[in-house]
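User: I want to check something. If I give you two sequences, will you return the structure for each one separately, not as a complex?

Assistant: Yes, each is folded on its own. Here is the first sequence with its structure:
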Amino acid sequence: MENLNKIDEIMKGFVEEFCYEKANSMFLNISSGKKLRSKLILKIAGVSDESLKLCAVIEMIHAASLLHDDVIDESDTRRGKSSINATYGSKNAIMLGDILYSKGYFELSLFDKFIARNVSAAVSLLSIGELMDIELSKKFNSNKSLYFEMIYKKTAVLIEASAKCAAFLKGYDADKFAKYGRNLGIAFQIVDDILDIVSDDETLGKPALSDYKDGKTTLPYIYLYENLNDKDKKTLLSYFKKELSSDEILWVKDKFNEFKIIEKCVNEAKFIANEGIEAIEKYKNNELIDIMKNMVDRKF
């Protein structure tokens, strides 16, 4: 926790360098996340001034992407708190995101070019992933390959870059840790998609099945669609981007249970997670193994 607080302080200092109180106050109202990317970096590279600063840069870039994401999705909440766009307006949220992106890139330019290139390339792909997500939300997507490409770019690519750059700092095989990070990110997103279906409203901090209402055809829906008869396929499609009644929600959940869709998705997430663990097996880093296993070994 102490190191995570240090990362927050570094980020706060970055924003304070602009000497603009509006930016400072908005930044302080951003909901602090679990810092998965930072935990990953510190567990691979260890704690040093350089690794903590890298964490701060990546967390700033990640925060910027979430600020823009909330504007795009018109989200009122983020991590159980009022989103920046809901509190200060979309224009301010976009500009704060731009400040964090710009400052993050400036600080990134001071690192070794391997790190600067890999993180900046990841952020470019992240933006492509955001664009894909918007495009795919226009209609029901039954293409599993497109789903995986989108979640890799939108969610996994920055986790992949974090692990890869941390390995570089430590002198490890960067490609092996990149695979671990990539698989962690993909498994994380699949689990998040599952939780949207199986968790209650209070746990989620948002209504269940809200992904589907928002136009996100996640892996469980793709697999469900593949298993339904023609009549039920039409029913499922008719629910896309719709505020569902309690009976309609029950119908969807019953179909998930009937075809054991959640179990199928959990098994896929576990397979991907195990591949990631195998990639770094020779390093015997039990903390990284635990992070991956805790992601997927839970009750759904």
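And separately, the second sequence with its own structure:
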Amino acid sequence: MKKGLVMEGGAMRGMFTAGVIDVMMEHQITFDGAMGVSAGAVFGCNYKSSQPGRVIRYNAAYCNKPQYAGLRTFLKTGDMFGEQFCYHDIPEHLDPFDYEAYRKNPMDFYVVVTDAKTGKALYKKVDRCDKTEMEWMRASASMPIVSKPVCVDGYELLDGGVADSIPVQKMQELGFDKTVVVLTQPRDYVKKKNQLMPLAKVSLRRYPAMIDAMEHRHEHYNEELEYIREKEERGELFVIRPPKKIEVSKVERDRQRLLAAYRMGRETMKEHMRSLERFLK
């Protein structure tokens, strides 16, 4: 039996996921493979590098820095989250990412991206997290409208959540029989149509397939949730979700809100730990 972990995105709702995976790491819970989408990728990769605490530490430290994220960065670079600061200054200098530990960890790690030209999901196995593979990470978290497509390996890529927000079925196709899913919305959540589609049609006019994918994203997302609920009821999936709505914005500058979301993740995971250990046996 291969054990897999799927981590949904959700921008700064990913602080909930950070709390969940930190508790898992502290309890030496291991997986054969993990797949992250958007924030689930750029935060979840710390599972493979075995660095509990790092996600909340650097987000709490730098959430107020204009070069980290915000309107000023968007107007200057075309990206809401600063590429240089987020993907170079922090992991290479300010709060070092353990690239060596990442490479040595046998757990497979996949990131989900959306091909802007086709509107379809691509699933990239990231073995080394080197310069090129880091671009796939960045692409997975590059939200449409507020991010430029990331050009890497001949592709033009954007947020993986557009094409496949919760890639449980892909993990199952890859042979992961026991899958744990970390969601960032509560059980009763239903996704609605994107209200920013008129703006998307202007900013992404060069990518009609991407626009189409965004228009139908809510339908696919809700279908994925229904699939997950059915599998969960049958005991075929283990799902960890927040007990209530996470009160953070996509670019959250309030450290206390980030910490509250993180603590919610930790507390929720602690409540589920015994059940999770039984599921993974």
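Because they were folded independently, the notes below concern the second chain alone. DSSP finds 13 helices and eight strands in the chain. The CA atoms of residues 145 and 202 lie 9 Å apart.
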